[in-house]
Every structure is written in C-alpha cells, then in structure tokens.
Amino acid sequence: MRAVYCVLLLLMLAGCNKNEVGDVSLGVFTTKDIKLDAIVDPVITGVTCHVSSIEANLNLSDPSDSSIACRQTGPITADMIAKIDKSKNGEVLFTKSKSIFFKTMKIRRILDVENQTLMYLSYSTKETSGSFKHSLSTVPLWGTDAYSAKVQ
Predict the structure, then answer these.
(1) Residue 11 has pLDDT above 60, yes or no
(2) Domain coordinates in residue numbering, the chain
(3) What is the DSSP letter of 94?
C-alpha cells in the first residue's frame, strides 16, 4: 500500500512545473491538457519564450507537438550576446521529459550572425509518424544595444 501512495505522490509532483503559466483542458472526456510554459533565456534575460505542448495525463508518452513564441521582454546587450554559444548548433536552454521512453522536448538558442537575429527552436528528440516535430521563433536584435555592436 505504501508503494501505491509513493507512485501517486510522484505522479502529482510530476505535474508541478515552476515554468507553467497556463493549463487548458481539451475536454471532459480526455485526459489531455495543453500546458503553457514561460521560459526566460538564462543568458539573454531580455527574451522570454512561451511554449505550448500537450500533456497526456495517465499515458506513458505525451504527443510530440509543440509551439513556441519568443519576444523581447527586456534589454538585450552586447555583453549578453558575447556570452552565448555562436556555433551552428547553438545551445540547449530547456529540456522537458515527454515520455518514460526517452522522448524529450528541447529548446535550443541559435544566433543568426548575418541577420543579427536570435532563433529559438523547440523540438522533440523522438521521431513521430515519420518526422521530428519542431517549431521556430525568432527575436531580431534590431533596436537593441546588441544590434549596434558588431556581432561575431
């Protein structure tokens, strides 16, 4: 009986997410909800991304679909840009488990140097129905302190 309580507690705690800002039920006859998370870029703190994804409660795996929208919500400086990974792969900012079978949703930041734009990519690490689900949002550096600086 103690094991049952432990499992129930773990399931309840799994639903707790400090980034969650919204939760929309998809109806009375489904256990699926749309979860809305707000993620502030840890280095470019003037950017906030909102990510929506479906959580299938009581299922072993959540759907891979997600959507992302990122906006400038504060200052973006040349010092911030100097600290980020400028490789073609960028860097992972956020990871969320979507299955007990090693499927995760990740958010990656990549700098488009030529167009002076930050790109934020939300994607699933497991192929679903022949494709990898992903979504892209961009934040231009135009109008920020970082734009006037030479981005290298």
Answers:
(1) no
(2) 19-148
(3) E
